[in-house]
Design brief:
mainly alpha; elongated
Length: 86
């Protein structure tokens, strides 16, 4: 079984389990808030890493006599940071 299928099955099983719990409306809201909060923390971490990587690339570019980064260079740096996070 490939990883994507396993992840999909695991998420489906988790969802079924959560639906089977006797959660009140406020319990569901609490759970949703925790999940959203952790996602925002991950996003903020990724953004911080991307900014750091872009700043490093800008510094290297300036050291090599270039004063600007191209859009392609910025996009490549962001792509690299995302790959490293996986």
């Amino acid at each position: 079984m490939n990883s994507a299928t396993y992840d999909s099955n695991a998420m489906s099983n988790l969802w079924n389990y959560i639906q089977g719990l006797p959660l009140s409306s406020s319990d569901r809201r609490w759970l949703a808030d925790r999940l959203i909060e952790s996602t925002k923390e991950d996003e903020n971490s990724i953004i911080a890493e991307a900014r750091k990587a872009i700043e490093e690339m800008r510094r290297q570019s300036e050291e090599n006599g270039n004063s600007e980064m191209t859009l392609d260079e910025i996009n490549e740096e962001i792509r690299q940071v995302r790959l490293e996070r996986k």
